Amino acid sequence: LRDVSSTELYEAGLTVMMRLVFLLCAEERGLLLDDERYEAYYSISVLREQLATEADRYGEEILERRYDAWARLLALFRAIYAGIEHPELRLPALGGSAFDPDKYPFLEGRAKGTSWRLANPPALPIDNRTVLLLLNSLQILEQAGGALRLSYRSRDVESIGHIYEGLLEYT
Asked: What is the value of pTM for the model shown?
């Protein structure tokens, strides 16, 4: 990360958040896969629930010692970009620059100029607690009467634009 500018970090962070918003919309509308393997190993809604359950059961501190959730998100981003061709799980490639793993290689722990298809470094050490906080920020609305789980199923383009504008306000 030493060679990454603060502008690149900001843009990459915003890109990750928008990837997650897109995926929440797509998952909740049933536009990706209705498959138990996708649910168990890729779904970000299920990932948030799994991390929250683990935090409730063992305490959030345990999440600070585990690092698999970030790698799971990276695998999902790659799957959306390049697709999955497996006899038991098929997801067509969506491509596009938003999910291009080579756009911000440092998110995967890779150096600039390396290809995601050739390089296989360890993922950045982003702990599971950080991923849970990230997912909660998009899926849980904390309010005086208690927490409310947000739904992306019926969000329209204007609403998603409002979420995007809100993300631009954060650093």
From this structure: 0.87
